[in-house]
Amino acid sequence: MLPKPLEAYKAVFFDVGDTLMTIPASRIIMQQFLASRSLHRGEEQVGDLFTEAFRLFYYGKQLDPFEVCTPESDRAFWMKLYNYILEKLGVQEEKWTEDQIHECCHGMYDLFTGPEPYQLFEDVHESIIALKERGLRLGIISNFAATLPTILEQKGILHHFEPVIVSTLVGLEKPDPAIFHLALERSGLSAADVLYVGDHDRNDIWAPNQAGIDAVKIKRYDYHSGVGIHSLRELLA
Fold first, then answer.
1. Would you say residue 202 has pLDDT above 80?
2. How far apart are CA 226 and CA 203, in angstroms?
3. I need a surface site. Which of 2, 16, 31, 135 has the fewest CB within 10 A?
């Protein structure tokens, strides 16, 4: 259910992770990466720990208004998350050195910020084409590594979006409403002209609302709660 009919907007802006694309084999990829470093653990254990860590560190993250978002701060955030996973997997008992842990965490960061593991959701291509055919402009506002434009280009969709606002490239991150104000400034649109679509209650619903932007939640997974849509196709219904 959209806040207003789609025709009332001039543009639709999107979150990216778990909205436009995902890593469908993240558990297997991480398990194989760790196994290549002689840390052999079950796929379910690795996957459950990643989910636990992501919910703890990302969904529970408190924004520091004085902290500038940079490629370095993004890497540092994920280092803490990967360190947590490795500790829970018992690397201390495996006698890993600090250097081994450091190298492994950085390796996982580089792996998961490259284009290879990512896959667009099956409704993305057709939906963005249909939205553009209806005369809507498309944009992106995402908390992501600085590699996001390269990933989107490799997936064949970067050219559909303007502006592309990436937290690590602009020094702002959701849920700071300033990142949405920046997107409006760069697009030349007013808040009333834009509908935002994302999967995170605070980052993608509350934050754009603070900037006067209507937002709709997309629920790609069973653990997503609340009111929202399950496919981008529902924007066009």
1. yes
2. 15
3. 135
